[in-house]
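Hi,

Apologies if this is the wrong queue. I'm a grad student, and the batch job for Transporter from Micromonospora inaquosa produced an output file that my downstream script rejects. I'm not sure whether the problem is my script or the file. Here is the sequence I used:
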Amino acid sequence: MSVQPGWYVDPADTETRRYWDGEGWLGAPIPVDATPPDGPPPPEPSPAPVTPAAPAASATPDAVTAPPGWPPHPGPPQGYGPQPGPPPGYGTAPGYGQQPGHGPGWGPQAGPPGWGPQAGQPAWAPPPGHPGWPGRPPEPRPHGLRLAGYGRRLVARLIDFGLVFALNVVVNGWFVWRWAQEWAPYWQEVFRRAARGDNSADGLPMPSEQASSLLVAILLIATALWLAYEVPAMAAGGQTIGKRVMRIRAVPMAADQPLGVRRALSRWSTLGLPTLLWYCAGLGLVLQLVDALSPLFDHPLRQALHDKRAQTVVVEVPDRPDSAPANDRDQPPGDTL
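Support response: The file is valid. Your script probably expects a header line. Output copied below for reference.
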């Protein structure tokens, strides 16, 4: 899910705003404290063409006008002289094609391919490879904060999983033990036959129907414990214990404020509810792995699938509260990417 079109603070210059059309910046910047218009900016008028002045009459038609005192020359070398026009895309600008002492059409010649404005490139963007913009735009800083790296997010999630697992050992341990007892005779017989080189499945002791009920209860309890651990903490401050340890937090894209219960529940459900599908040949685990790896392939905001659903981003927490950019504190909520 891409960022919705609207007026946002320019990541390259936080003193200005630009209009984001969903794919790129559009139009000229405006001061950050100015009230943006409704909708996109009006298209910029193209420069009016300038017709070069007619050359002055000369006694010698082929002679080239030169500074006083210079003798007239018979003309430019063969192949050098007036060109049919500027390269495609340059347009006509005041004074283009004229240099002091020469007639119209003299001046810049067609350069190598790729010079000048290219089709589909915004007028404000330097060409790729420009020294001030090496290859791609600068990384967004939502609400003036750096985006959290994938390493920090992974370690925070592992810490949270460890704590949820400890809760399951306490609350869910009896159900897991009973489920294991149901399957123990089956696996013991499988291992005994494997040791003898017997691969047949005839006569294996199968678990009772209670094993399926126990597995459903285990998954329901595990999902409920995860919800109780994560959703209230994320709704209040955007941080679980793992995120606090790694100094990162989740914030809405629209404003630097708490997530709230609705957004926190929407964010958790994308990752947590597939736990119930572990019963279906591990399908839920596959979905959770895809969600966990998705920030590696999302640019530029590094959003996981659960971030995209809840419209949140994960940012680094500054070392000190007063270390946030000064101009970000003066902005109304919801004005940054």
